[in-house]
Amino acid sequence: MSNIYIQEPPTSGKVVLKTSFGDIEIELWSREAPKACRNFVQLCIEGYYDGVLFHRIVKGFIAQGGDPTGTGAGGESIYGHPFKDEIHSRLRFNRRGLVAMANAGKDDNGSQFFFTLGSTPELQSKHTIFGKVAGDTIFNLTKLNETLVDTEDKPVYDQKILKTIVLNNPFPDIVPRVEKKSEKIEKLSKKKEVIGVKNFKLLSFGEEAEEDEEELIDVVKEFSGRPKSTHDVLKDPQLSSEPAVVDNELADDIAIPSSDQISKISIDDVRSKLSSNSKNKKCVPKSVEDEEDSDDYELGKDLKEEKKRKAEEIRKEINQIKSQLSKKKKDKKKDLDIDNTPSIP
Asked: Using H for helix, E for strand and C for coil, what is the string for the chain?
């Protein structure tokens, strides 16, 4: 094991990753892999890795992270494009705790990296080794190896980088890309300033709509800042643009009454209105009441006459029945008298 460490070149540069499973100290081989180390250090300085997940953990093999999207398909380098592999003969995938660039093929390095969790000789000459886990923090790496994962090697519980600290910067000339944030702000401000332009070519009546739009813009420019009349907007020859009454003439013709006159006029108007209202109120109910009384009277009169007529008819019928009964009684009496008279021998 000691022979392995003797073969490895000395490091220059150190970064600490504050993670959810403990600190990880990384010593860099900045001379052997300058592009990869510069890329990693600058991304750490810019806080690019803060909050980024370890999205893939293959137990006993690797733990991969560095993708802000957390999918394994994102991330970019500081150069704005993928950079070339840096393969060094003295750096070999023969133990755990090595830090290397993840890629999808040759010379396709971005921001993603991985830790080796064991000996991985099958990765030799395919990935750039640029650092190693130092000191006792290697034991925190074993915690990552024991993390629960699903069938797609994704951790069941999020394991992520909380913060990155550059303890020893081997590239003092690195300038963080502050311009990028300002560029984004400028783009957003430009988007707000851009005024929408209507595309009339997409419409079947595009030419007519363009003409109407131009006329409307001309009218707005011409009459902006003052009220517009119907004549101004419609441009109808039948409508006159001259005012119907001149303000000066109107002021001369109309005599403005004094406050005393106004008060007298208003009082007189109120009195006249009140008197007329009271007269109307008195007259209207009387006529209505008279009509109602006359209607009631006529209706009562008819009912009384009808009752009298029926009573007379009933009386006549009673008298007639009485006379008939008395007549029958008389006839019966006569018959009895005849029967009782003695017969002559």
From this structure: CHHHHHHCCCCECEEEEEECCEEEEEEEECCCCHHHHHHHHHHHHCCCCCCCECCEEECCCEEEECCCCCCCCCCCCCCCCCECCCCCCCCCCCCCCEEEEEECCCCCEEEEEEEECCCCHHHCCCCCEEEEECHHHHHHHHHHHCCCECCCCCECCCCEEEEEEEEECCCCCCCCCHHHHHHHHHHHHHHHHCCCCCCHHHCCCHHHHHHHHHHHHHHHHHHCCCCCCHHHHHCCCCCCCCCCCCHHHHHHHCCCCCHHHHHHHHHHHHHHHHHHHHHHHHHHHHHHHHHHHHHHHHHHHHHHHHHHHHHHHHHHHHHHHHHHHHHHHHHHHHHHHHHHCCCCC
